[in-house]
Amino acid sequence: MTGLAILLPIALFMGLCGLAAFFLALRSGQFDDLDGAAHRILIDDEE
After folding, report:
1. Are 25 and 31 within 8 A, CB to CB?
2. Which residue from 3, 12, 17, 40 has the fewest beta carbons nearer than 10 Å?
3. pTM recorded for the entire structure
4. What end-to-end distance do the CA atoms of the chain give, in Å?
5. CB atoms closer than 10 angstroms to residue 28
């Protein structure tokens, strides 16, 4: 029972940290152009 009392708040804290990181990435615009990076890797700019 003691392990559950320790691990449950740690799991909730880690989940909230992951959620905060997701919203921070969403706010910074990392998900705005999902197809652009996939197309840029196929285009050769040296020619």
Report:
1. yes
2. 3
3. 0.63
4. 66
5. 9
Alpha carbon distance 37, 23 (integer Å): 21
Token reading at 8: 């449950």
pLDDT tens-digit map of 9-34: 999 999 999 999 999 999 998 888 88
Q: How far apart are CA 27 and CA 14, in angstroms?
A: 20
Say what the pLDDT of residue 29 is: 87
